[in-house]
């Protein structure tokens, strides 16, 4: 069952208002959303749920449940993304954040890094309003103001390069983004990864703001309040790349360990704030300390923000991130001050820095 997945593009195409449609046939919208994003493995889905989805999409179960190697990961060098919510090549990636949480900075940084790797970057934001729009439009190679313009531009480059397309939520609400995806598919241009953002912050209040997604990046207000960037929630952010066959077992094991520690660490923060750390059992103190250090390690300077942060951008290969996270969870950073792990690269680089007297 590890290499089976929902045919999310088919659902997206045939059932645009999936939340309301799911409700109408007795399905919980949250369950459908979690199946689409990979939070609930397909093997745990009830047969009646899959049958109802097939009915909604007017397709067979064979069309709804697909097998294959789709879901290749795009490695970004951004530690928290690559660890917890890898970007899905050729998929649809949704950003959920309120204004001021840095979603457009993260998108601009992703585009900057992928452009350096030879990807073509396109922005389609006909009605975009909100803080930080210029962050992404200045980073992209091509900026379009209409579906027709985007189709022409992507058609011109899509035969030669992988295309990274960013669009705002207005194109989802009007259905234009689905029209564009259909037209590109009909033109045999399948190498397009779509990033959906909501500069106005309205997506936060919706159960399923973009329809089915391959990767969901949920931004976190509590992390913002403590100036932990990128403020991508390690618990709520998900990716279908992590469904068994798409990453190796080492990545899966480390990611699951890290998520478990981060979930408990977040619970313990409230207790520490209320009662102090001295009253906690030793096992919880250890989880709290390691969670705190892992959280600090996952902060990272961005290339696109160098002018403002005065810190040089840092890229960390996935294997280094996985090795570092495993070592932190095993206690290798227990003797380090939390601040020494902030805004850093690899753990070896941190350990090699001379200690301040």
Automatic annotation (TrEMBL):
The species this protein was found in: Exobacillus caeni
InterPro entries reported for this sequence: ATPase_a/bsu_AS, ATPase_alpha/beta_chains, ATPase_F1/V1_b/a_C, P-loop_NTPase
Keywords: ATP synthesis, ATP-binding, CF(1), Ion transport, Membrane, Nucleotide-binding, Translocase, Transport
Record-stated family: Belongs to the ATPase alpha/beta chains family.
Keyword Translocase: yes
Sample GO molecular function, one term: ATP binding
GO cellular component, one term: proton-transporting ATP synthase complex
PANTHER family in alphabetical order: ATP SYNTHASE, ATP SYNTHASE SUBUNIT BETA, MITOCHONDRIAL
Superkingdom of origin organism: Bacteria
Subcellular location as annotated: Membrane
Keyword field contains Translocase: yes
The protein's name: ATP synthase subunit B
